[in-house]
Amino acid sequence: MITSRADIVGSLLRPPELLEARERVARGELSPSEFKRVEDRAVDEALALQIEAGLEVVTDGEMRRESFQSQMTDAVEGFGERDITAFLWGEWHGEGSVGNKSTPRPTRLGAVSKLQRRRHLSVEEFVYMRARTDKTVKITLPSPSLWANFWSPDLSREAYPTLDSFLEDIAVILREEVEELVRLGCTYIQLDAPHYPLLLDPRTRAFYEGQGWNLDRWLARGIELDNYVMQPFHGVTFAFHLCRGNQGSRWLASGSYEPIARRIFAGVRAERLMLEYDDERSGGFEPLAYVPEEKIAVLGLVTTKTGRRETPDELEERIREAASYVPLERLAISPQCGFSTSVIGNAITVEDERYKLRVLTETAQRIWG
Length: 369
Prior knowledge:
Helix content is 37%, strand content 11%. It is of the alpha/beta class and 369 residues long.
C-alpha cells in the first residue's frame, strides 16, 4: 500500500502556453502533433515542480484534460452535447473568485446513444509519466455515479432506459481502464467523487434525487459501483477523494462529513480517503472516528482556492488535533483538491502552488520523519 505522508490530489495550474494552444488547435490553427508537444512540455514542467517540492507521489497535473472528468467524454462516444459547465455545475459560492456566478445545468445534457470507447481514457497520461520518473505516479479517474448528470430522462431513454443501466456502462468503462493501467504498471489510482458531499446540500441533493434515487440509494448503489471499479489488484493502492466542488476558486457545498462518513469511509474499498479540511466549511474532525483501522485519512489541509500561505506550525497543530480521532500513523496530508480542476483554474499563482506543495512535504517530514 502507498504510505506517503504528503500526497497530491491531481491537477496543477495549466500554463498560459497550454491554454493558448488549446484554443488554437480548436480553431484549426495548430496541428495535433504540435499541440501534443505543448502538452508534453506542460507535463514535464508539472513533474519538475512536484519533484522540486519533494513529493514522492506525483501526477501529470491533468494537463491533457479540459476538466477532471473530461478524459471520459474525449475517449467515449455517446454523450451528446456538452461544454465545460457540464462536468461540475450548480450554485457556486466564493467571494473574489474566478467567474463567481451560478452555473445552470445545460438543458440539452444527456447521453444520446450507447457508449462506445474509442480509446483508453488515461493510459497515455500514465505511460508518458512512467517513462520520465521513478516516483509513484497517481492516475485520477471519476467515480461512476458522478456521471448521473449526463443521464437525461428525455434524451437518454432510448439508449439507457434507466439511470442504473447508464451508470453500469460507465462503471464497466472505468473498470477496463483500471485493468489496463494496472497491466502497464500503475500502482496508485484515485477515484474522484465530489457528488457525495453535494448530497449534504438540500438544493443539490434535490437534483440527484430527481434522477430517481433517494439519498440511501445514492450511497448504497454509488458505493457498489465505486467498488466494482476498485476491485482488488495485488500491489495497487486506491484513493477516494471527497470534496465540495472546486473551480475558479469557488465551491458548491458545505457541511460536516458526519451524515455520510460512516457508510462511505467503511464502505468504499479505497485504502486512502482524501478528505477536504481546508476551512470551516468542512466541519470538525469528529467524523474521522469512522475511518476503519486499515485505512489512511489524508487530510486536505492546504487550500488550493486562495494564495493563503499555510505554515508547518499551523498544519502540525491541526494534524495533532485530528489524531484525537485517528492515530497519527494512519494520517497523511495533501491539498484539499486540485489546483485547477478544469482549464478555468483557481485564483492563485504558480509561486503559491510551489509554496503550498513544499509546505506539505516539510510538514510531513517534521511529523513523520
